[in-house]
Specification:
By secondary structure, the protein is α/β, with parallel strands linked by helices. It has three domains: about 110 residues, NAD(P)-binding Rossmann-like Domain (Rossmann fold, 3-Layer(aba) Sandwich), CATH 3.40.50; about 150 residues, Rossmann fold (3-Layer(aba) Sandwich), CATH 3.40.50; about 80 residues, Alpha-Beta Plaits (2-Layer Sandwich), CATH 3.30.70. It has 13 helices and 16 strands.
Length: about 375
């Protein structure tokens, strides 16, 4: 029996996939895994029993990744599960950043009570809400992951010229891009040529406040900026200054913060990117599947703090070994396994930065898990039979 703790409401379509061998709830003690959405875990005391955390969503800023890695707790996310939901909101953001639809709707409400005169008042006042079409304009997409690719392709189909920037663009991702999307190798190309810029990158030391006075100065006059990724990617004060100077025509963001609310030229949404029933279902299903596969088979798919590694079961016993990525450590681990008479049938070893993960399938004698864990550099060992 596996114990799964939920720190947020997780769609039943996901938790039901775990099956009868799983106890799932928000008051589970000694959990083997945790399913979480937005709840902060930075102050959470990780129990000794905890093997995995699955974030039902892409961002993992609410989870202490390094601390988990040091304790041998694998953290998963669900990349792409909410990509379509965010893409649709970004396309809407492009449109409302150009056409002053929201302002027009609010103005139209003020005409209530004018009876037959409303029609004439509308015709007289509508010119103040005019705005350009997006067709034929240039969109710069910064970050070509699951969401960025969908946005780029959708914008291309709407008649926009699309520039994409991603220094880590994978072959698989590149194959998903519309042939009409131009991949550029410099952010300056995005800044200098784009009428609209949308940012889809993770928040880290390299990307924090990447939209700032310096980068804004490189942009076209009248640029429209969209941020549906992370609040910290944008220096709000610099964006507001850009709006007041006329450099920026509009800033659309999914992160409503006190400093930008009610400001002219800003459209702030209450983090609605993944707020669709389809997205929540997709994230729940993916998170549950990741946890189930790891607990039952030791396979790691979509981890954010350990390398991905998986293989079909071939032996009688599987050893799942979380360890440091250090020279000769793997040979020491295999030496301990072999010393018991166990025969290695299959093995997969992957590394990610300072951490590594090794799957070993054996037949014959059982190796001593405690002896493997005693090897310097080994963090945690699980045995699956």
């Amino acid at each position: 029996m596996y114990n799964i703790l939920t720190l947020n409401k997780i769609a039943k379509i996901g938790t039901s996939r775990l099956g009868e061998d799983y106890a799932v709830g928000d008051s589970i003690a000694n959990p083997d895994a945790i399913l979480v959405r937005s709840a902060s875990m930075h102050e959470y005391e990780m129990p000794e029993s905890l093997l995995a955390i699955a974030r039902a969503g892409a961002g993992v800023n609410n989870i202490p990744l390094d601390d988990c890695a040091k304790k041998g707790i694998v953290v998963f996310n669900t990349p792409g599960a909410n990509a379509n939901a965010v893409k649709e909101l970004v396309i809407m953001g492009l449109l409302i950043s150009s056409r002053k639809v929201l302002n027009g709707i609010e103005w139209a409400k003020t005409l209530k009570g004018n009876g037959d005169a409303v029609g004439k008042m509308v015709e007289k006042g509508k010119s103040q809400f005019a705005g350009p079409e997006i067709k034929g304009k240039k969109l710069g997409v910064v970050g070509l992951g699951a969401i960025g690719i969908l946005v780029a392709n959708a914008a291309k189909s709407l008649g926009m010229e699309v520039l994409g920037y991603d220094p880590f663009l994978s072959v698989d991702a590149a194959l998903k891009l519309s042939t009409g999307v131009k991949h550029v190798t410099s952010l300056d190309d995005i800044y200098a040529n784009s009428d609209y810029i949308t940012v889809h990158v993770p928040l880290n030391a390299d990307t924090k406040q990447m939209i700032n006075a310096e980068s804004i100065a490189k942009m076209k006059d009248g640029v429209r900026i969209l941020n549906y990724s992370r609040d910290g990617l944008v220096n709000s004060a610099d964006v507001l200054a850009g709006i007041k100077s006329g450099k920026i025509s509009a800033y659309v963001t999914d992160f409503a913060t006190d400093d930008i609310l009610g400001e002219e030229g800003v459209i702030a949404m209450p983090h609605l990117g993944a707020s669709t029933p389809e997205s929540e279902d997709n994230c729940a299903v993916m998170a549950a599947d990741e946890v189930k596969n790891y607990l039952e088979n030791g396979n790691i798919v979509n981890s954010v703090n350990y390398p991905n590694a998986s293989m079909a079961r071939t032996g009688d016993v599987r050893y799942c070994i979380l360890h440091k990525n250090a020279p000769k450590l793997l040979s020491k681990i295999l030496e301990v396994i072999g010393s018991t008479g166990a025969n290695v049938e299959n093995m997969d070893n992957k590394s990610r930065g300072e951490y590594a993960y090794t799957l070993v399938d054996t037949t014959g004698a059982d190796a001593d898990a405690a002896a493997i864990e005693a090897v310097e550099g080994v963090i945690r060992v699980r045995v699956i039979k």
